[in-house]
Design brief:
- It comes from Rhynocoris fuscipes.
- It is a single chain.
- The model has no long low-confidence stretch (mean pLDDT 79).
- 51% of the residues lie in helices and 0% in strands.
- The chain is mainly α.
- Bound molecules: zinc ion.
- The site of zinc ion has 8 residues, from loops.
- The site of zinc ion (ZN) has 8 residues, from loops.
Length: 83
């Protein structure tokens, strides 16, 4: 399971919900759609998603999809949350 900073803050596992790179609230939408830290990974992810979803993408379609191909593309989120 992937957890955003906003969720980890809410359950007391992080001291702040703010993204360490952008200083914005770190919810899933920020990580997937905006965060400067993941611009390269986002480009790679979106290039793959064009095969499966109509553009423009909505982050909830990406995060909550059960499509196995999407999960491969989420590697940057998994790496981020385990660091
Ligand atoms: Zn950020």
């Amino acid at each position: 399971m992937l957890f955003c900073g906003g969720y980890l803050y809410k359950i007391g596992q992080r001291s702040s919900l703010t993204c360490r790179t952008c200083r914005l609230s770190e919810y899933y939408e920020h990580i997937v759609m905006e965060c400067n830290q993941f611009s390269t990974e986002r480009d790679m992810l979106f290039n793959e998603l064009y095969r499966f979803l109509p553009s423009p993408f909505h982050f909830q379609e990406i995060i909550f999809s059960n499509n196995a191909d999407f999960k491969i593309s989420f590697q940057f989120l998994i790496n981020y949350n385990s660091s």
